[in-house]
Amino acid sequence: MKRIPFTYSRLFALTVLLGLCLLLFLMIQMRLVERQLAGLALGYFSDNARTSIQNVQENIGRLARDGASIPDSALVDEMLFLLESSHAGYVLVLPGHNRAELIEGESGVRVSMTEEGEGKVSYGISEVGGTGAASGGLDVEELKELTSTMRANLMLVLPAADTTPVIDLMRTPEGKRFVMLHVRSTAGSEPVTVCLLFLPEKFLNRLVAPIPMQMTAALLQQDRVIAVSAGAGKAFRELAGNDMRGVNLVDLLEKVGPAGELDHVETVTEEMNSGLRVIFISQGMGLLKGLLTTPLFLSSVGGFVVVLVALVLAISRYLTRHRRYYRPEVKVDADFVRKLIRQGEGMHVEFKSTLRQNLLSGKRDKSMEIAVLKGMCAFMNTSGGTMIVGVGDSGEVLGLEPDEFQSEDHALRHLGNVFNECVGPRHFNCVSLHACKLDGKQLLVALCRQSTYPVFIRYQSTEHFYVRQGPSNRSLSIGEFWEISDKFKR
């Protein structure tokens, strides 16, 4: 097993990889958190929007109830207050059957209309100070026409009884659309009608203005979106084009973003008679985008990645140096050994006839054990290899019978003890010992991987350093060892 050398380029690549993994993890987690928080925020701000609409409706209802008793000098102040509190484009009051008062919010132009009988109508124009709310930019003649048209429509539409202020949609002959909030009260001596007019986009923008996140308000009629707030204006225009009927709600949800799904839609208010519906659409909270633009968060992530890289490298080095035993990637069986025998001895394979028995003298010989250990140390100091004990140099299978071991476990323990005695237990993590039967004869197989430390063998009171050169083992002098010692530096 060849050791991969440490380089700064690999450290940089590892850092980038960990950073990307961390960013991906944050994106997934932020999406999950955003979905949960967006749902909670959607309900919370929808309740606030309902309260805001109810407050406007209460102000309209109050003015309608008290309008008959309010003198003309104070009526203008009440109308201006209603414009300012609601940010409407126009306010229209019908104090009786023969009068109509309209104030435009943007310019503050007041139109007073009086029906004098026999079809005669007189108009009075004055300026009372505007609130700056966008109203559509109508000139004086158009304001007169709007006052007359609205008066006629409201007299026909509203019943002559107290009702809850309702939301409706009005289209002018010129094609302009307005959202109306109107009510009639008969509490006084004469019926009083109050109506607020909004441009649809301005009405929706008013609802989402206090919301500090991506949330869109939409106005629907018969399940067709006919207006949206500024947050989704571009997407709406791309879908609608010149189609005045509006766009399909599902198409808009797909366009506004990943959070724009049916479970991220909340109905704020709905009018059964007119079919108008105001909804909120959550487009997410932008948590990840906000974090990625925060220097403190970026520096924290960078520090975390550096610490993580250092920790991974430290653990990797520790495991490389101190793991207790070597787990080979191959299965040591008869087929594996037979294949190595057919290959013959070479750079990564060596055969030994016996472990401790000298076949020439017929006696146990310590030099036999040292010969086996020399080959194992040479493999560990070079590029790894396999030592097979019980096979002759020419490849004939001899077995361990000459060594007279009681069992295969006895043979494995003996080789392990000899290794610890002459080489040292520190390097035993580079060796994997196995017993294998081939052609009915017992063999010992030692798989050796390349060591990250120099491996010396001690015998005759001297330490020796061996490397593998082809099919043989070579002992290096001190000078030769010094030349190759850089490969072991960490």
UniProtKB/TrEMBL annotation:
The chain crosses the membrane at residues 296-319. Gene3D superfamilies: Schlafen, AAA domain (3.30.950.30). Residues 345-476 form the Schlafen AlbA-2 domain. The keyword rRNA processing does not apply. Keywords: Membrane, Transmembrane, Transmembrane helix. InterPro entries: Schlafen_AlbA_2_dom (IPR007421), Schlafen_AlbA_2_dom_sf (IPR038461). It holds the Pfam family SLFN_AlbA_2. This is Schlafen AlbA-2 domain-containing protein.
